[in-house]
Design brief:
about 200 residues, mainly beta, six-stranded parallel β-sheet, about 0% helix, globular
Length: about 200
Amino acid sequence: TSTSRGYGGGGVYIAENLTYTMNDGVIYSNQVKQTTHASGENQVADDNSGGGVCTRGTFYMTGGSIGKTENGTNYPNNTRLGGGVYVFTDGTFNMTGGEIVANTCANGGAGVYVYTGGTVTLENASIHHNISSNHGGGIYTYGSVTATTGTNKIYNNQATNSTSTRHGGGVWIGTAGSLVMANGEIYNNTARSNGGGVYIDNN
């Protein structure tokens, strides 16, 4: 259980040209606290992002869990963008097993957030019970997400806020983003507004 104050990666931060492999275990109850920048200091795109993992390099996940639920209690990773995993420009996330579960975020992508130029490949992956207070409960992407191998499941995720428009309970896709999926399941996701399963935006 950790707290990072600054840029990204409450649990794990992967820098450019580096590789991290997760074969088992659990990354949970980590957070990235909101950064207040000094006057004249530039904010970068991965500020306050990736409560569990933030990658600018390559992240291989073959098993284990990001986020945790046990005996009816959730132990989420939490941040502004990408509660479970944040994939930055030129970052890569290959998930060939395991689960991303029970993570939360304030802005988008409680399970996974993919920034423009980021790449995600899913194979026998499970992304479920993540809650975004904005769009994209399971996945929020401006990058490329491919889920064509094995059986991938995106279910019981939520994009909810009691007072505002919220889209894409399972997946939110921006204009620069894409999702290619075969032999997968997207079900029981909830959005306060449109696209309980998938929402494709024009901005």
